[in-house]
Structure formats: C-alpha cells, structure tokens
Amino acid sequence: MDSTRQNKFARLIQKEIADLFQKEGSNFYGHSFVTVTKAKVTPDLSIARIYLSIFKDKDPNAVINHLKHQKHLIRKKLGNKIKNQARIIPELEFYLDDSLDYAEKIDNIMKGLHIPPEGENQE
Description:
The protein is of the alpha+beta class. It has one domain: K homology (KH) domain (GMP Synthetase, Chain A, domain 3), CATH 3.30.300. It is built from 4 helices and 3 strands; from the N terminus they run αββααβα. The protein has a 3-stranded mixed β-sheet with strand order 1-2-3. Strand 1 and strand 2 (47-55) form a beta hairpin.
C-alpha cells in the first residue's frame, strides 16, 4: 500500500511528465500518440515508474526503448520543472501500459459469447 506522500509525489510526476510529453513529445518519440496512464514511486521516492499507452505506432516497444535511451534528458527537464517541489529527482523507468489492449480483448471475447435466453430448452 502506497503512502499519501508517495501518491502525491506520483501524481506530481505523472502530471509533469504528461505536460512535458505534450509540449516536447515529438523530440523524444516522434509522431506517436503517447499518454501517461500511471506513475508509481518507490517508498524512498528515488525511482518513478511511468506507465505509457502508445497509439498510432506499429511498434510501441520501440518507442519505450527510445524513451529509455533519452531518460536522462527527460529527467533533467523534469528536474527543472519540479526543483522547488522535490528534494530529489527520481530515476525514471518507462513501461508499456497494455491494460487498454487487454480490456479490448476481453470485450471482444464477451461479445463473441452466445448465451441462450433462460426460456430456451437446453439439451
């Protein structure tokens, strides 16, 4: 269970990374549509795990790898934004959030099920 401090710091990181990607995202990952879905911070606030949904790209893992190579620049820009609000700037780890793909898959499975009405004879 995350503490209140972790949750507040994670929300700050998520907001600032999302803002950074909105303004300067094409410099980091090209023309893909990237959404910051969640940020989780370790209890000592030294590592921030950023979960991203990536659309309009054939290989989302390539975008994640590209971001991992540029994480030092992203961390520096993040540090410039939150330097007055945080004592330490966390190391960034980027992960692909495929929960929307999973939900769509489950939805398609549910639509494909044939459930007979209650009144029908079952033989």
